[in-house]
Design a protein that fits this description.
Elements (H helix, E strand, L loop, with lengths): L4 E3 L2 E4 L3 H13 L5 E5 L11 H6 L4 H4 L6 H4 L2 E5 L3 E5 L4 E4 L4 E3 L2 E4 L3 E3 L12 E3 L3 H10 L5 E5 L3 H12 L3 E6 L11 H13 L3 E4 L3 E7 L2 E7 L4 E3 L2 E4 L3 E3 L15 E2 L11 E3 L4 E5 L4 E3 L4 H15 L12 E6 L2 E7 L9 E7 L2 E8 L2 E8 L5 H9 L23 H4 L15 H11 L2
Helix pairs in contact: 1-8
Length: 445
Amino acid sequence: MTKSITKVKYLLIGNSAGGIGAAEAIRQVDKRGALAIVSDEPYPAYSRPLISEYLAGECSLERMLFRPADFYEKNKIHTFLGSKVERLDIDAHTIRLDNGRGIAWEKLLVATGGLPIVPQIEGIEKKGVFTFTTLEDAKAIGHYLDGATRAVVIGGGLIGISVTEALVKRDIKVSVVEAKERILNTMLDEEASAREEATLREAGVSIVTGRTVAKINSEEKTTSSVTLDDGRKVPCDLVIVAIGVRPRSEIVSDIGIKINRGIVVDCRMATSSADVYACGDVAEAYDFIHGENRLNPLWPNAYLGGRVAGFNMAGVRTEYQGGLAMSSLKYFGLDVVSVGIVIPPDDSYEVISNIYDDNYRKIILKDGLVVGMVFMGNIEKSGIVYSLIKDRVNVNSFKQALVACDFGLLSLPEERWRPHLEIPTSGVILEVVSVKQAEEIVAGE
């Protein structure tokens, strides 16, 4: 039974990158419209990519905050933190929370993110088995480490390698078990993956590829080892399940909103239901490299998608130009940038690469356009290549320069670099023109 009803103009379910991006865009347009954020996590918005640093003891909760502590108050945002949505009624434009409270809304954003994929493994319910996607996960693992010396990480993707590095920094001996033949297989090609694996092994990490965990064993209900599908046993004090995430779309699964792998949205981040938007890990949004809607569960895509949704919710028509798979990481001191398609699906793609010193560069082209890249080691100029991908520049006349050891802004044709003398030359450039245009429209009002 609903205790009370709070009426708002804008309701955002989700308090991470997408929800904050939407809130900021709404407040640029509408300073007074009632705005509320609901999240089942009790914390202010924090940077999820930093949970590994938190576990490693290198980052405090205060430094993890995505926005200042007074962000909600300054932006007149009513928060329902630590509250779970039990029911969403599209027709009535209401939600009911697990504490019995109700919220009536005019415009709704679903930015619920993803949930960790937990496979059906015998013993998965044992004490000492964790996932690693939230601050609560990091806290729980940290508390469990007292007296622990060995861990098994199931999954050699971004989440798995991230928690592995944090555990190694806590003096835990880690064994990574990856079902595929190599680690980071969705974002790196064979060369880059092999280099990353060598770096992990040098740091003392054991890596088992092409195998799965068949059973988690325990002594007195506490994890003691895992049994692989070939019968081998790997001793451990804890297990981290890190094989990926799935869209957290349950709250809209039975109310008629179009869902494929995630909630399907158009270029305005609008769903198939009027007044309902979605963004971030839960949404299938346009990928301009593949030319279709895809899941791209990445922090920058979530934030920019949230801003597009927020502007549209507040009445400023804004289009999402598209995201793409993109990762910039540094595990065990090795810098890597991976963008777009890194393994060509057929021979219609062209690949150029270069290995020099301890650096590796690879560019993938399709009809003269850069559709993917891997930079490893020296990634300083990766932002320039990203801008070529984003701007859909034909690079046929200078493509070999992109992987040269002395590549830089002046390697491009003059007509390309002269208007962009202020382009940063470190990191990955993140820019969505349509959002900038929306901001200019708002500023001019």
